[in-house]
């Protein structure tokens, strides 16, 4: 394939921004796995199911721990001093309005899931609860609780970790909008090498398979809805082909028109339609019951948040199968979608502060999900109990048709079905659209203005693979394979958290770093001498000379003056482990006052060593004269201070020492060690 691309480029001036080291391995893996799942669906599903069962059974606790870390990490960053850092330069403005931004969050993240599981999940937990032998009221309450849990802060924290990492490194440090960039603090420029390629290949394949399976399974719900309206006579494969082709053609057109024009407009339209549908169900349904269960449900969720977060059902053996089939499967599914959704969120979040990003990504979608799931789920339970007399519960295992059966108990059923199908279609289009956009970005390292045919290529490949697997029955095995790959990517995401924290610490230190302490006393008389020192990278012998010719002379003058005032003082020298010199003023009731200076090594970064427009650096290690004090505080670099300035600095520290010693509040700290 590499030779084919090269031939087309040379022969027909065929332009491509594909990064071959990412695109070609990804296509090879995608095609190979698709063939395996398509031609051997039974064997593939059996194999991946066995692997999934082993992982879920033995490492379910690890999934719980990983997701818990993500939640705590994002909350910690949001409330920390790092929250005010912008995703971009300090003067960068957001590219999208707040409404457009939030609308696109839903479109890429969980839009289609809300339609598919809005009724289905709550009814599933109600009909088959996690804990058996609950009475009817408790079953409804627990069903709502677990629905909130699976669609709340935990799910969005998974997306938020990837999105925040990518947005920060891309917009704050001008690295490619790719997952590899999140490892820069650990790997530096090696992110552009083999490891970075492997990470991006993993992300690209995960994104492709996630969208392909969602597209395939979503067609089942769409075809069921169209059949209920009488638009199509049945849900045969030929009608499913028509649905997929129509959806993907629109998605490709939208993707080639650009993110701002395509996904933005469709997302805004769809969030309005979804809100209207939700409000209709609220008003036409059991309104008081819905509002009451929403209030109580949020309180129940908050009060049980920590126990839900850490619960692995280690002591409830009968619930462990439910736990694996729901909670762990959800965590694996969200993680498998994290490369796609996280990168999309990053793409639309330039100019936001970190605190704004985290709070919006965690709280706004989660709260909307709570409202949505309550309006649809609680209505379904109420209808099942008081109107349908258990008829809806019978469809709890048939999610494809449950939403449309639910609407049959409302007025304007046909209109509701039409609106729902329209919403599902647009959610499908925006998911496919944004997925195409992200896959093209990963495969070309985020290249701007890449050829439009690349978007069409990914859209066409998605269509072919999803239809082939839908026809052969291989979608289930592909979905299972995607869930299996979630665990290693979860480990990668933990490393993203570590690297992001290191980068944020460096960012904060850089932005709050003050001038060298010695520069506070500078004047314009010795600027040439100061410039010479700045341009000199001292070795140990240079610091030794500075200690002997400048610091020692300063200390000797001070000792003489102190002795005139009958203050006992002395000078100590130490050659191990680093050369140092100390001025010591002895005390009986207070600890001794010590002002010392030592030669401290400092490693120079490769970036500065390789920089052409700086003085030559002979070694990657230089030495600085750093002050230190008797209370074990480390001081500062004094290499730019003259003899008289060092004396002034010692007197400033000595004055501080005497002031603290005169205050009885500090006796414990001022006593001799």
Overview in brief:
By secondary structure, the chain is mainly α.
Structural description of this entry:
This protein is mainly alpha-helical. The chain has two domains: 2-506, Up-down Bundle (Amino acid/polyamine transporter I); 523-670, no CATH class. Helix content is 68%, strand content 5%. It has a five-stranded antiparallel beta sheet with strand order 1-2-3-4-5. A hairpin with a 5-residue loop joins strand 1 (569-574) and strand 2. It starts with a helix and ends with a helix. One of its GO terms (cellular component) is plasma membrane. This is Choline/glycine/proline betaine transport protein. Belongs to the BCCT transporter (TC 2.A.15) family.
Query: How much helix is in the residues?
Result: 55-70%
Shape: elongated
Kindly estimate the percentage of residues that lie in beta strands according to DSSP.
5-15%
Distance linking N and C termini: 73 Å
CATH overall fold name of the largest domain: Amino acid/polyamine transporter I
Instruction: Provide the structure class.
Output: mainly alpha
Question: Strand order across the biggest sheet?
Answer: 1-2-3-4-5
Regions with little confidence, pLDDT below 50 for 5+ residues: none
Largest sheet properties = 5 strands, antiparallel
Chain-averaged pLDDT: 82
* Number of E strands: 5
Count up the helices.
26
The second-level CATH architecture of the largest domain is: Up-down Bundle
């Amino acid at each position: 394939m590499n030779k084919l691309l090269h031939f087309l480029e040379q022969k027909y001036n065929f332009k491509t921004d594909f990064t071959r080291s990412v695109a070609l391995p990804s296509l090879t893996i995608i095609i190979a796995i698709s063939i395996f799942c398509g031609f051997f669906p039974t064997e593939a599903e059996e194999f991946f199911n066995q692997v999934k069962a082993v992982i879920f059974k033995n490492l379910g606790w690890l999934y719980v721990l990983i997701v818990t870390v993500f939640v705590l990490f994002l909350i910690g960053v949001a409330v920390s001093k790092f929250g005010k850092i912008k995703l971009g330069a300090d003067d960068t403005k957001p590219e999208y309005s707040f409404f457009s931004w939030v609308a696109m969050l839903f479109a890429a993240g969980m839009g289609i899931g809300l339609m598919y599981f809005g009724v289905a999940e709550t009814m599933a937990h109600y009909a088959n609860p996690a804990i058996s032998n609950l009475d009817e009221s408790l079953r409804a309450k627990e069903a709502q609780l677990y629905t909130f849990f699976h669609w709340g802060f935990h799910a969005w924290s998974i997306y938020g970790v990837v999105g925040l990492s990518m947005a920060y490194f891309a917009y704050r440090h001008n690295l490619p909008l790719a997952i590899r960039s999140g490892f820069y603090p650990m790997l530096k420029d090696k992110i552009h090498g083999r490891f970075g390629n492997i990470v991006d290949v993993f992300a690209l394949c995960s994104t492709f398979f996630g969208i392909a399976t969602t597209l395939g399974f979503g067609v089942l719900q769409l075809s069921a809805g169209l059949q209920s309206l009488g638009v199509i006579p049945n849900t045969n494969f030929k009608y499913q082909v028509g649905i997929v082709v129509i959806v993907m053609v629109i998605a490709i057109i939208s993707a080639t028109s650009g993110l701002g024009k395509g996904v933005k407009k469709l997302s805004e339209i769809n969030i309005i339609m979804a809100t209207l549908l939700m409000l209709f169900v609220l008003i036409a349904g059991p309104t008081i019951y819905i509002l009451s269960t929403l209030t109580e449900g949020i309180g129940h969720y908050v009060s049980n948040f920590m126990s839900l977060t850490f619960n692995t059902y280690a002591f409830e053996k009968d619930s462990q199968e439910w736990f694996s089939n729901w909670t762990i499967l959800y965590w694996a599914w969200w993680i498998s979608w994290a490369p796609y959704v996280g990168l999309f969120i990053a793409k639309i979040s330039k100019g936001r502060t970190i605190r704004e990003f985290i709070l919006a990504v965690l709280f706004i979608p989660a709260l909307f999900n709570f409202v949505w799931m309550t309006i649809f789920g609680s209505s379904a339970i109420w209808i099942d109990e008081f109107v349908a007399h258990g008829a809806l519960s019978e469809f709890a295992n048939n999610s494809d048709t449950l939403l449309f059966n639910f609407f049959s108990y409302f007025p304007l059923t046909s209109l509701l079905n039409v609106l729902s199908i329209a919403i599902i279609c647009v959610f499908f289009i925006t998911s496919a659209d944004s997925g195409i956009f992200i896959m093209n970005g990963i495969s070309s390292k985020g290249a701007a203005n890449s050829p439009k045919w690349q978007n069409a290529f990914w859209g066409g490949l998605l269509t072919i693979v999803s239809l082939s697997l839908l026809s052969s029955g291989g979608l289930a095995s592909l979905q299972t394979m995607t869930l299996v790959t979630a665990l290693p990517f979860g480990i990668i995401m933990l490393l993203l958290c570590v690297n992001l924290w290191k980068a944020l610490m460096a960012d904060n230190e850089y932005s709050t770093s003050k001038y060298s302490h010695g520069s506070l006393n500078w004047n314009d008389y010795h600027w040439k001498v100061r410039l010479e020192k700045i341009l000199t990278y001292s070795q140990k012998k240079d610091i030794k000379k500075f200690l002997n010719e400048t610091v020692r002379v300063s200390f000797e003058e001070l000792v003489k003056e102190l002795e005139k005032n009958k203050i006992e003082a002395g000078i100590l020298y130490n050659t191990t482990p680093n050369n140092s010199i100390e001025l010591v003023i002895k005390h009986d009731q207070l600890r001794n006052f010590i002002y010392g200076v030592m030669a401290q090594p400092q490693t120079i970064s490769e970036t500065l060593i390789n920089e052409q427009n700086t003085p030559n650096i002979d070694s990657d290690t230089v030495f600085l004269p750093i002050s230190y004090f008797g209370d074990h505080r480390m001081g500062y670099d004094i290499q730019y201070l003259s003899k008289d300035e060092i004396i002034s600095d010692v007197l400033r520290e000595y004055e501080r020492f005497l002031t603290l010693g005169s205050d009885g509040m500090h006796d414990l700290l001022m006593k001799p060690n």
